[in-house]
Design goal:
Helix content: 40-55%
CATH architecture of the largest domain: 3-Layer(aba) Sandwich
Largest sheet: 7 strands, mixed
CATH topology of the largest domain: Rossmann fold
Order of helices and strands: EHEEHEHHEHEEEHHHHHHEHH
Number of strands: 9
Oligomer: single chain
Structural class: alpha/beta
Strand order of the largest sheet: 8-7-6-1-4-5-9
Distance between the termini: 32 Å
Shape: globular
Length: about 300
């Protein structure tokens, strides 16, 4: 499947953290201090490749400083646990790289949005909604499977892989998860999501969850069938009690897994300047990215010059 984008949405922190591991030994001296910059280099390198493959105007979504989900469910993403010293150091280093990257993207003319009391998924949800209303072909570049719930006839996700990306449309989602995109949030609420520390219901895994959702169409339908002792209950009888006894928790999990498309966002206005991008790349010793061809590719990401 070949798709060219009008709008290419990058999941900022997800891509930054992923590439920082691939280039973790890369560091440079800035103002007399040696700092890790592998994530910045990796992000820009991958963004160049992805933009060359899919095209489109690039926008970047960032995590909000706070997230309503952690207030609703403190264990969400293990945020209720104090990080150890090593984790604190990593978070500090990544925060510094994020700030450097934001400055470079701003000079590239790339629009950036940060969630207000929400996370990057919700920012991406809002951007996808705008793209859909404008009838734009949108590709979301992220390995986060939560984002597959946003897929529609004009919206796709591209998940990075070792050899190549996996491009998801509605059919690919159903083949991979057993349910269409609009049921991904319900699937994760039922089966849990270890990456977000959402436990799901006891004993219910992805296959059982997909079977129930395919049969009843939604969580409410599953609950009604479980309470009503429906004769066509498609899985083990023991799961009737699991659903009814954990209904309140399931509704909380569903709120956690559902991407909101109407949350407030703040924006970092672009200040397009090729000279500033070149200065920042040279300061970081990114010689390959500062070459004429690569620099031209970076400047194209923000769309045509106005």
């Amino acid at each position: 499947m070949t798709v060219r984008a009008d709008l290419l949405v990058l999941d900022g922190r997800h891509l930054l953290w992923r590439t920082s591991d691939a280039f973790r030994t890369l560091a440079t001296e800035v103002d007399g201090e040696t700092i890790p910059v592998g994530g910045v280099y990796g992000f820009l390198s991958v963004a160049l490749r992805v933009h060359s493959r899919y095209g489109g105007v690039v926008v970047v979504a960032w995590e909000g400083r706070r997230n309503f989900r952690t207030r609703l469910y403190p264990p969400y993403k293990n945020r209720d646990k104090e990080p150890d010293a090593e984790r604190v150091e990593i978070i500090s280093e990544m925060g510094a790289q994020e700030r450097i990257l934001i400055d470079i993207l701003q000079a590239m003319g790339v629009r950036q949005y940060r969630g207000v009391n929400c996370e990057a998924d919700d920012v991406i949800g809002r951007l996808v909604g705008i793209g859909t209303k404008c009838r734009a072909t949108t590709i979301v570049y992220s390995g986060d499977s939560d984002l597959r719930q946003l897929i529609n006839e004009r919206t796709f996700t591209a998940s990075p892989g070792k050899r190549s990306d996996t491009l998801y449309d509605s059919d690919a989602v159903e083949e991979r998860h057993g349910v269409p995109p609009h049921l991904i949030a319900a699937l994760k609420a039922l089966a849990g999501d270890s990456s977000d520390n959402i436990p799901g219901l006891p004993g219910i895994g992805p296959k059982t969850a997909a079977t129930l959702l395919s049969h009843y169409g939604c969580l409410t339908g599953i609950m009604r069938a479980a309470r009503g002792k429906a004769d066509d209950w498609p899985v083990s009888e023991r799961f009737r009690a699991v659903v009814t006894e954990n209904w309140r928790a399931l509704k909380v999990y569903y709120t956690l897994t559902t991407i909101r498309t109407n949350m407030a966002v703040s924006s970092t206005p672009p200040r397009r300047s090729q000279r500033e991008v070149l200065r920042l790349l040279r300061a970081l010793r990114f010689r390959s990215l500062a070459s004429p061809a690569e620099l031209h590719g970076l400047m194209k990401m923000g769309g045509p010059r106005k």
